[in-house]
Amino acid sequence: IPDYNIDINGDGKPDLNIDTDNDGKPDLNLVILKDWKPSKCVEIDGIKYSTGITAKPEINIDLDGDLIPDINIDNKGDFKPHLNISTDGKNATVNLVEIHEWKPGKDYKKGNFPYDSIGEEVKPQINIDTDDDGRPDINLDFDGDGVPDINIDTDGDNIPDINIDSTGDGKPDVNVDTDDDGVADENIVKITEWKPEHNANKPFPYDTMKFEEKTKLEDKGIIVEKPDGTTFPPSLTLKVTDITKDKVEAVTDKISHNFDEGQEVIQVFDVKLLENGKEIQPDGTLRVKIPVKSGIKNPSLYILNEAGEYEKVEAEFKDGYLIYETDWLGEVAVIGNEDELDTDVNGAFYPGANMGGALTGDTTNIMIYMGMGSMAIGMMLLVLYKREQED
Known about the structure:
Order of helices and strands: EEEEEEEEEHEEEEEEEEEEH
Radius of gyration: 40 Å
Number of helices: 2
Largest sheet: 6 strands, antiparallel
Structural class: alpha+beta
Low-confidence stretches: 342-364
Mean pLDDT: 81
């Protein structure tokens, strides 16, 4: 019974139990041959030998002839494949690892049969290949603990559900499960379809969700963009809070000495940039657009800087927005003059500013008309009264 360098197809090249280091013991494509019945004799270059072994290799298959096993690798020495398992016989399907070098060490024996394993230092990564191209797509285990870390498919539909890496940096940023309870609790996105793109290469090729990223972030009318027009990752969101009611007096006290005549604090916003739900500052310059209410003349903008002081910023007023560029987000205040002629609000009459006790705007006109009408009625009554006296 042949032990190594066995030719099963009669082409004159060994196929099974190959001895790569010429020590007289097989290293690759191992099978244990308990019985051999020659079924065919062939002659190649004048040499006659028998072929037709029915045994098939079970582990350590070398597909490309480089003497490095490609699929079904036994790294534990128990004669069972653990890494790079192929379900179709062509492409590795699950448990993928990239093996750069393999040095046979004759580190295991099965009975009296010595062979080489890959070694315990090679660990599977879980890594399921959904499109059968030999590259992992979902369920990546980066810390080798046997538990998927990103792109986790919880319902078995081959579409990742939680801890999804959309940017290819190896960190989840969509449907993030922070408490590891199997339910996404941050940056929730409903995913109904997944088309693997193989858009990440480290630490090995795998797929991210490749979401369409936004060119601007917006909340409560405030818009944030990048000056160069590049996009924001899905992990970034904008959160704006209108804090005018609580802050207008405090802001006025601090900066009123800088106001021009008739100016006042119109509106105050708290602008925050969030990454995975946590507040951060921009890592570069952003273009910020602050909407200004209609009827405001000569608007200007103040921001609360890192030192806790309000400072005026150079902002362009265009299309109803105060536009400026900054690498710092936080509290902003809109300053301006309210147009006294613009008093019609939602169909009702707004009294405008009460200067020295006198009503102004359309309300003043109404009061004048009402007074004149009252005087006219009084005069008519007086005339009628005198006529009655004369009669």
